[in-house]
Design a protein that fits this description.
11 strands; six-stranded mixed sheet; flat; mainly alpha; single chain; about 675 residues; disordered N terminus; 21 helices
Length: about 675
């Protein structure tokens, strides 16, 4: 009887303990529910709070921005023309002060009710505004230079744009955040347009731009146009409509014409291509309209944020109540399940399952993984004997362990197989694309030969050129996988034709000037790689230089029997560190894993490096004598043929025949010819 009593007491103790253990998950669920509800409700209130802050404090700032921009423009004009009417400056400052007097009182409430990120931006902005009287006094007395004045107003207006940007970024609602960011980008575009207007006004007043003002002016004009074009498609409907109305207006047309005139023909003393009065009127009108567009976009973003925030609050409250009910039901069910487990006395089976699982995890699985790493073949079914504990809950846990172990080992085996097959799949896709593009080129070639209508023929030429570029993109995949591309030639091809074939595969081929090449040839096995390598470098040269600039291509003999090809662009060039890094890449053979780890979007340099390593070609980037970058390509003697190889033109490979604009063909060895929009003939794989 004593033994029975002891067993009953032990049974009750175990039952009580396991009941408490069964309640632990329910308590955890309750805690998680509380945390989730608190966070989601806070997110809803947070979104509404930020949106209201923008509505109450930031939207009224539009007039202040317009007046500060006008004051900046007049201040720069005053430095260029000291005889400017002081009364006009005083009147502008009064308008600025009046606008700021209506805006700055909102800052205190914004600092008190907003997150720390917004409060910090507001303090920075308020501090810059506090400097405004002293800055004005310094301008009047001559103690502050023109550049210092320009920099101060730029910092002040940038701080305002940063505030709008921060308010948009911290909103938890994605749609409202995107709308706010688009509005902040329009504000920045308006400020850049105003900066350019200030520089233009100063240049017109002073008879010319300063040392770097012309470059700055052109950069600002291009930058704000790019911002507007980029953000217009993602703006809210009313803001986008207002912006489209502005960009199609007469004032916008005049502004673009004036900007182009100042960029192409900057004013000189006594010579002004733009009337200062018209310039001031147009820039002031467009600047104010851009601020109105930004305010409209911000208003729509605020309305969107408020609507989404209120809706989220209601949804969260409903979900929280349902979740609470589920948790309470779970607590009751957990208590009953815990008692059922004790009644079935499963403690011993649990201990046995624990021992078997630990043995599998600590001994057998590590051994299997080590063998896989060494490349050994592993039979998953033979290596993992399943744990058999019946079909009840313990058995189901054992089955779950079996599944987990089996999945882990099978995944490791599959990963090894995937590594081996990835390259094949990658190449298969690339080769299929090559085949399709090659067939497309054949069809286009046949259609071109049969087409006589000039407009349709021009369209076919454009499709032909796009298909040629698509073929090069497909070949990039093959090259990066370390395999020879499909295009091959049996006979050597003249260097001039190889260079022109590379030009034909670039996007902006009409900007490339090819100078006379020596009477040499490239051996047939290397023709495809040389064309591909030169095309990538020419494509980079045209892509990273101004649209109206030219890219020059020179060819000449080297002292060691090879050929030097020089590709010069007129772009902004590369930073020394970036150029050194690119030269290190070009001097080595990169691996595909390195490309994926770097996440570099300029894959053309990787392709050039692989091709150069394959053919022993030396590629080096240098700074140009003026502006831009020069790519030096040294073709080694083993891929250059010096003997005349084509006595009879009829025996040459059908590589390049360059038509004139009228459609008549001209010889491909002509010197200093600008590449035409169409290259007839096709370099067929296997030729």
């Amino acid at each position: 009887m004593a033994r029975t009593s002891s067993s009953g007491s032990e049974y009750k103790t175990i039952r009580a303990r396991l009941t408490r253990v069964g309640l632990v998950p329910s308590v955890i669920l309750l805690v998680l529910w509380l945390g989730f509800s608190s966070l989601t409700i806070y997110d809803g209130f947070y979104a509404v709070m930020v949106a209201r802050g923008v509505q109450e404090a930031s939207l009224p700032a539009g007039r202040s921005l317009v007046e500060l921009q006008a004051e900046r423009r007049m201040a720069l004009e005053r430095f260029s023309r000291p005889d400017l009417d002081p009364g006009a400056m005083a009147a502008q400052r009064a308008r600025t002060d009046d606008a700021l007097a209506r805006t700055r009182p909102n800052f205190d409430g914004l600092i008190a009710d907003s997150p720390q990120a917004i409060a910090g931006q507001v303090r920075t902005l308020d501090g810059l505004l506090a400097e405004l009287p002293d800055r004005r006094a310094g301008m009047d007395s001559g103690a502050i230079s023109r550049q210092e004045t320009f920099d101060y107003y730029n910092r002040l207006l940038d701080a305002w744009a940063d505030l709008f940007d921060t308010q948009a970024r911290i909103v938890p609602d994605l749609e409202a955040s995107h709308a706010g960011l688009a509005g902040s980008e329009v504000v920045r575009a308006a400020d850049q347009m105003s900066q350019a207007a200030s520089l233009g006004s100063a240049a017109l007043a002073g008879g010319g731009f300063g040392d770097i003002d012309h470059v700055t002016f052109a950069h600002l004009v291009g930058s704000y146009h790019a911002r507007i074009d980029t953000n217009l498609p993602v703006m809210e409907p009313n803001g986008a409509a207002l912006l489209r109305q502005l960009t199609t207006s007469e004032a916008w047309r005049k502004l673009v014409a004036f900007e182009n005139e100042l960029i192409e023909r900057p004013p000189r003393p006594g010579v002004r291509s733009v009337d200062p009065v018209e310039w001031g009127q147009v820039t002031a009108e467009v600047s104010e309209k851009l601020i109105e567009v930004a305010q409209q976009q911000a208003r729509e973003g605020v309305e969107l944020g408020l609507d989404n925030g209120n809706r989220r609050l209601l949804e969260v409250l409903a979900i929280s109540l349902v979740g609470l009910l589920v948790v309470l039901v779970g607590i009751v069910l957990a208590a009953r399940v815990a008692r059922g487990l004790v009644d079935r006395t499963l403690v011993s089976r649990l201990a046995s399952l624990r021992d078997d699982t630990l043995r599998l995890a600590h001994d057998r699985l590590p051994d299997i993984m080590s063998r896989l790493e060494r490349g050994e073949q592993v039979d998953v079914e033979a290596e993992l004997a399943p744990l058999d504990y019946g079909t009840d809950e313990i058995g189901q846990v054992a089955d779950a362990f079996n599944t987990a172990h089996h999945t882990a080992v099978a995944a490791a085996v599959q990963e090894n197989h995937a590594k081996a097959g990835f390259n094949k799949v990658f190449l298969g896709i690339a080769h299929r694309n090559q085949g399709l593009v090659h067939r497309q080129l054949k069809v286009l070639d046949r259609m071109e030969r049969n087409e006589e209508h000039p407009e349709r023929l021009a369209g076919l030429f454009e499709l032909d050129h796009l298909a040629t570029r698509a073929r090069r993109n497909a070949e990039n995949l093959v090259v990066l996988a370390g395999v020879q591309a499909g295009r091959k030639w049996r006979k050597p091809v003249r260097l001039a034709d190889v260079v022109r074939a590379a030009v034909a595969e670039t996007e902006h081929f009409d900007r490339i000037q090819v100078h006379r090449a020596p009477d040499l040839s490239v051996v047939g096995a290397a023709v495809g790689d040389v064309i591909h390598l030169l095309a990538e470098l020419m494509d980079n040269a045209t892509s990273f230089s101004a649209p109206n600039s030219r890219v020059q291509v020179y060819c000449g003999d080297t002292t060691r029997g090879g050929v030097l090809v020089r590709i010069e662009d007129e772009g902004l060039g590369m930073r020394p560190a970036e150029r050194d890094e690119a030269n290190v890449l070009l001097a080595s053979k990169p691996k595909f894993e390195d490309i994926t780890l770097r996440g570099d979007s300029r894959l053309g340099l990787f392709v050039v490096a692989v091709l150069a390593s394959r053919r022993g070609i030396k590629v080096e980037l240098r700074e140009a004598a003026g502006e831009g970058t020069v790519a030096y390509v040294r073709l080694p003697a083993n891929i250059v043929a010096h003997d005349r190889l084509f006595e009879d033109r009829s025996e040459e490979p059908d590589l390049l025949r360059l038509p004139t604009s009228a459609g008549a063909e001209r010889p491909s060895n002509a010197s200093d010819d600008r590449v035409r929009p169409k290259w007839k003939g096709r370099d067929r794989p296997g030729d």
